[in-house]
Structure formats: C-alpha cells, structure tokens
Amino acid sequence: MFSSLETAVAEQFKAAFRRHPTGLAIITAPGPVGLTASSVASVSADPPALSFSVMGSASARALLDAPSFVVNLLGPGSIALARAFAGPGGPRFTADQGWDQLPTGEPVLTTASASLRGTPLSTVPVGTSTVVIAEIHAVLLGVPGGHLIYHNRDYIENQ
Questions:
Q1: Domain edges within the chain
Q2: How far, in whole angstroms, is CA 73 from its chain's centroid?
Q3: How far apart are CA 35 and CA 57, in angstroms?
Q4: Backbone phi, then psi, for 151, in 5-degree steps?
Q5: Is residue 69 exposed (0-12), middle (13-18) or buried (19+ Cβ within 10 Å)?
Q6: Mean pLDDT, the chain cut into blocks of 10 residues (159 residues total)
Q7: Does the predicted model carry a pTM greater than 0.85?
Q8: Torsion angle, CA of 54/96/109/105, rounded to 10 degrees?
Q9: CA distances from 135 to 48, 49, 67, 93 (A)
Q10: Which CATH architecture group holds 4-158?
Q11: What does the buried/exposed string (b/e) look like for 119-151 if buried means 16 or more CB atoms within 10 Å of the residue's CB?
Q12: Among the residues of 26-137, which ranges form H helices?
C-alpha cells in the first residue's frame, strides 16, 4: 500500500511527464495485435536496438509473448490511428487504416514514418509495466516530414 508521500510523488511524476512531449508508435505483432506507445526510445546503433514499455492490457500481454513485432513510428495524419490503438474497443487493422503484412507475419502500417521489425532481447518488469529491449532486424522508411506527438494528454501534429 502506498503512503501519502509515495502517492504524492507518483502524482507529481505523472504530472511531470504530461509536460514532456513524446513521439508515438503503434507496436504490432502477428495475431494481429497492437497498441499505441509513447515510450519508444533508441538504445543502441550497434547493434540496432530500441526500448519501449507496456502495461498489463491483453494487447500488451500478447506483444510480450510474441517472438517478433513491428514498431510503427507515427507521423502527421495518424491521430485517429493512435486513438484507436490506445485503448480497448477502437477499430483496429481495418482495410482503410493502411495495414499490410510482412512476409514474417507482422502487421505493418504503410503510412508510418518508419517501421522497425524487431525481436525481444530482454524484458524487465517494473511495477505494473514491463520494459522491452529489442534488437532491430529491418527498417522500412516511409515518407519524411512532420510529426505527431503526445503532450499533456493530447495528440499534436505538425505537417
């Protein structure tokens, strides 16, 4: 059980990160399964590796069990997609969203700024989340330009 001091620090921690803009990605795996993540970060260029964290949703558990996945970095025009994959019940993997499938079975977003196919190197449980460190085996670059960020619980895009 949290003490009032721990609860206050947790609330301040969340408030601090609401002030910090982050990029967005939809992480997908065969199934198909996917979720929106704002925690993607570069870890290493040699070997190419990245990290992300997931919480305990059904989609997160399926991703953690998958042998491989694709991190689709979102650009402008992807707010509806980010929202659809951010919680349960949103439309996912519909024909009009721009999904294709890699020969290895993972869904890939054809409109992504970049799509990175990876396999897990390590997972680290932290509280109610799990941090995933993944080696990247393939990168598909989309059309450059603009960005989509998540800031203060809102999606912001710039063409």
A1: 4-158
A2: 8
A3: 9
A4: -145, 125
A5: buried
A6: 72 88 95 95 96 93 96 95 92 94 96 97 95 97 89 87
A7: yes
A8: 90
A9: 6, 4, 12, 25
A10: Roll (2.30)
A11: ebeeeeeeeeebebbbbbeeebebeeeebbbbe
A12: 58-65, 79-86
